[in-house]
Amino acid sequence: MSRTAPQLLEAIVLDAACAVLKSPAYAGQQIDPRAFAQANRATLLELVARASTLRAELAQTYRDELGETHPRVVALLGDSATDSATAAAALRDPRAIRARRGRAKPSSKAGADGEQSAIADERRPATQDPATARRLERYERRLTEIRTARDRARAQRDYARAETDELRRDLERAEEDRDESLAVIDGLRAELAAERDRVAELATDVLAAAAVLKAAILPPLTTLPPVGDIDVDPREREAAVDTPPAEAAPAADPMVAAALTCAEVSPDVLLSVLNALLEPPEPVNRVSVGEPREIALTPLGGGTDIGGSCMLVTAGDVRILIDAGMRVNKRIDQAGPEDIDVALAGPLAAIVITHAHNDHAGYVPALTAIYPTVPVICTPETAAILPTMWSDSVRVFDRSRGNHVGSDEPLAEPPYGDAQVHAAQRRIKEVQCGRVVEIAAGVTVTLFPAGHILGAAGVVVCAGPNRVTVTGDVSDLAQISVPGLVVPDAARGSDLLVIESTYCGQHSSNREAEVEKFVRMVSETVGDPANGGRVLVPAFALGRAQEVALTLRNRLPDVPVLIDGMAKDIARIYEEQTARSARPLKIYGDQVSAVQPGAREQLLRTFRRGVIVTTSGMLTAGPAVTWARSILPDPNAALLLAGYQDEESPGFELLELAKATRRATFVLDREELVVNARVTKFGLSAHADRRGLSSIITEVGATEVMLVHGVASKQRDFADNLTRRGFRVASTDRWQPIS
User: Fold this and answer.
1) Which DSSP letter does residue 105 get?
2) Hey, what domains does the chain have and what are their CATH numbers?
3) Residue 720: strand, helix, or coil
4) b/e per residue, 619-638, with b = 16+ CB within 10 A?
5) Cα–Cα distance for residue pair 110/108, rounded to 1 Å
6) pTM, full prediction
7) How far apart, in whole angstroms, are the C-alpha atoms of residue 460 and residue 469?
8) Which of 10, 119, 473, 530 could pair covalently with 452 via S-S, beta carbons 3.0-4.6 A apart?
9) How far is CA 154 from the centre of its chain?
C-alpha cells in the first residue's frame, strides 16, 4: 500500500535530517534523526529546495511514489529551484496537504497539461503575493544569521577547549616544578634537622666529650668509632691499641695542658679515665639473658612477586628486618609489605636496608614512626639517597590518594608524611661494607657490595654458629656507575642464601649488545647537528637514569643530553658520594646538563637535537609525560623505553601499539596523541640473569637457597633446575637451619 502525501513528506524530511547529521558539523554528536527532523522541519524543507544535489537524490529515492502524491510534494523534489522553494514554503504547514490522500488523476482530456496547470495553480498565489516573498527573504536572512552565529560559537568553543588544554598542561608543568622545588627544600630541611639533632646529642653525650678530650691529649695515637654509632664487633675493640698511660706525652692542646697543670692532674691519669669511659672493661662472668640464638627467616613481602620486599630474621628474642618496601598498583594505605603485621607483633632490634629503591626501602618511615628508636642500618651512599626517595614518595602519596579507591569510599591515608621522613632520616646509621656490626649479644650483621645501584649491599646475619645471607637486588656484571658483586668470605658456606630472582627466567643477557643497540638507535635518530632529532628515554630515577647518562657521555660525546625530574637530583648525589672514591663518577658537564626548575617549558620549544633522560620509567607520571606529548607526534624523534614495563603502565601499552604496522594513536594522561616517533625498548639491566644467579649461588655454596623477588612461575622453573644440579631449594615460608 502506497504512503499518503503527509507520510511521504515526513519520510523526505527525515532523509534530509539524516543527510545533515552526517555532515562534519555534527560529527561525533549523538542526535536522534527523528527528533531533529521534527524540530527543524521548516529549515530542512528550505534546505531541500536550495540544495539541488540533495533534491535530486531524494527525487531518485522516491521516484516510484511521486506519480501518485500531492503536486506540492512533486514540486518540492522537481528540477525547478523556484517551484521547489514555493512548495517548501507552503509545506511548512502540515495542513497544506493533509486533506488530500493523493493527487487526483488527470482526466484523459487534460492529460499532462492538467498536471502542469495544477502546479501552476499551486504556485500562483505565492509568486503573486509580495508579503510571502518578503517573509521568505526574512527567513533566509534569519537562517543565515543563525548559521553564522552557530559557526562563531563553535569556533569559540574549539578555541576555549584548546586554551583549557594548554592551561591544564601549564598547570601540570607548574606542579612538577613545584614538586621538584619542594623536594629540594624538604631535603635541605631534613639535613638541617639532622645536623641540629646531632649537635643536640653531642651537647649531652659524655662519650663524645670524652672522645674530644682524648683526641686533644693524644691526637696522633687515637682513632675512635663515629659518634653515635651502635656497638661494633668486640674483635675491633680488642684490635685497637692505645699508648700506655705511663708513656703518654703531655697534652697536645694548650688549653687542656693549662687546665691539667692548674688542677695538678697528669695527662696519663686523665687518659686512663677517658679510656675507661670509652671502652669499659667486660663484666666478669657475663651471662647472656634470653632465648637461645636459634636463627630463622620469614619473607614478609616480595617472596613470589616483585615489590614490597621484606625479610624478618629472628635469632631467639632478637628480631631484625631486612628491607621494607612498597608495592605498586595498591592503595597507598595498603602498599607496604604484604605481611608486615607479623613484624609489628613484636620489638625490632634493627632495620637493615639493602638499597634505596622504593620496593625495598619505601616503607621505612612508616616503621620508624612505630619504632622511634630502632636503628636503620645501610651504606653511606644509600643513606645519602634515601631522604630524596622518601620525600618524593610523600609527593606521590598526595597525588595518589584516590587511586584504587571506590567511588563511595573516602580517600586513602598516606602511610607517612614529611615529619615521618625527617624522623626516619635521624634513625639512619651509616655502616661501611665489610664492617661487622653487633645488633645484640651474639648477633651481628655485615654488609657487602651487591652491584645493582650505588650503595646497594647484601647482608650476612650471624647468630652463633649460624649464618643467613640476603643479597637484596644483585648484579654480577660491572656497570659504568657501579662494579659487580664480589662474594665475601663472610657469606661463603652460609646456612641459607636468600637471592633475588627478577630475571631468573632469562638465560642470557648480552649487556654489551644492548648498549651497542641503544647507542646505535640514539645516533641514528639524533644524526648530525643540522638535521638531527630528539630522543626521549624514560628511565627509573635511581640507577637506570644515571647509567644511561654515563653511557651517552662516554659513547656519544657530541650529543646534547638533558636530565630531568628526580633523576637529576640523584645524579648529583652519585657525583657527591663518589667524589673521593677510587671510581669518581662525572655525570654533568660538557654535553650533559640538568633541566633547571622553570626551564622545561622553553626547552620543549627550543631543544631540537639531543636526548632527554627523565622520570618516570613507565610513563606513569612526571616530566616524562610532558616530554612524550612533544616527542610522540614528531616523525624525526624516538622514544626508547629502558627496561621493565608493568602490564598496567602506559609504557607497556605504548610498546604494544608500536608493534602495529599502521600509524597508531595513543592516549597519554587523558590526551590522544598520534604516534609518529619511533618507539622501542632496550635493556640495561641491573639484575643478574639466570647465568649470573647460578654463578653466585655456586660461589656462596650455602646449605639451602631461597628464591625471592621474582615471578612465581619462573622461580619454579629455576628451582627445578637448581634441584637437578644438586642444590637444596627452600620454599618462601618460614625457614630454620636443618637439624
Assistant:
1) P
2) 5-128 (no CATH), 295-507+688-730 (3.60.15.10), 511-682 (3.40.50.10890)
3) helix
4) bbbbbbbbbbebbbebebbb
5) 6
6) 0.66
7) 4
8) 473
9) 38
